[in-house]
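User: hey, got a sec? need Transglutaminase domain-containing protein folded
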Amino acid sequence: MKIRRWLALALLLTACSSSGKPASAQEYPTPTEQTPSPTPSEIRLPEASGNVILGDSLIQIDASHTDQGYIMVKTLSTDHRRLKLKIMKDGEEYPYDIDRDGEYITYPLTQGSGQYELRGYENIEGTRYAVLFKQTLDVQLAEETLPYLYPNQIVNYTPQSASVLKSFDLTQTCRTELERVLTIYNYVVGHVSYDWDKVEKVKDQYVLPIVDETLAEGKGICFDYAALMSAMLRVQQIPTRLITGYVDEGYHAWVEVYVRGAGWINPEIYFEKETWTRMDPTYASTQMKYKGEYHDKYRY
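Assistant: Yep! Here you go:
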């Protein structure tokens, strides 16, 4: 993605004055109801319980906790060519690589409650794949936001991850959700620099973000910014979804955050109560202003 150098501007100008600024806020973030600080013991982690098993003799799918918004998948053999998983619902298709053998990988169910179709594929040659299985799965989410509170293949972390430890270190004095969002957003924007070399290297390939690598190196592309911010907010019990799609310049990634309170976190970004709000740490970090449209493709 080629980016012009401007200052970041997020969205949602409800409750603004005619100048586009908050009509009455005198401090940022807006004071809201205080909430207890989350603890590392509260981090939501996926579990393969073995209660509901799908798949075939090569790919095993543990669907024991679909009400939490995820499935877990592992290979049962190393004797195979490249494998893929496709998660489908209501005409939307989410393709994934199964990129590790013998250990569970978490894939989110981000298309809401309803009937999903799961398909497994194995490479034949080139770009040709054989279908290994097609299976349906009925999902009833306990809460809409749950898929965005767990780690998964795209936003991957553990309680020991450096990014998780950093999240708790940064927010230990925060009293509200808005304070936690602002603290982590400002940190990611200030700590991570845009990696122009990487964007050239990966422009023709799909490379998963590694949040601790982004944290350690202090640089990344839009996918990395979004994944790091998502991980650091999810462990604070703040639902955060990583979005990939398109802006005017081309492919892009950003986040949407869901908070219980309402208010401003800075003069440009306003959170409505219990509504998803877009935040774009990449544009903010590179001091670019984007006034065009965002077109969602995938939500992780």
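Quick note: The helical segments are 162-171, 177-191, 196-201, 211-217, 222-234, 281-285. Let me know if you need anything else on Transglutaminase domain-containing protein.
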